[in-house]
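Protocol step 4 of 5: obtain the predicted structure for the target chain.
Materials: sequence only (see below). No template structures provided, no constraints applied. The aim of this step is simply to have a reference model before the mutagenesis design in step 5. Sequence pasted as it appears in the construct record:
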Amino acid sequence: MKRKGAKFERELIHALWNEGFAAVRCAGSGSMSYPLPDIVASNGKITIAIEAKVRDKLPLYIQEEKVRELIKFSNIFGAEPLIALKIKGEKWRFFTIDQLLETEKGYKIGKDNFYLGKELGEIIGKFHQERLQKY
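Step 4 output (structure tokens):
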């Protein structure tokens, strides 16, 4: 799974570079005692720290500790913390922390909130898409 994840992280980095962002994979993310996201990117105006996930299908569960580390890094670095999720057959979707559903052990992205995630163009300010909220 690690190699598959790295492949998709590189795909996301290429997409960010193509949109005028400098983007890098953080070596050692997930294996160091410091909180590190998978990807850091900036265009000088927008800076984002991304925890990238790839799944064949929903739901995605994220440990509370992972989210806490992403927030900690982002606060120190001056970045917006985002979870990027690539589901087979779908475009990348980007989620702010408040869009995640809380669970007993952390957070979840499921069918109820997947389409609330933004596309890359929305994250970088290229376009805005209206979404209907479920009530």
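Step 4 remarks: The first strand starts at residue 22 and ends at 25. Residues 2-18 form the longest helix (17 residues).
Proceed to step 5.
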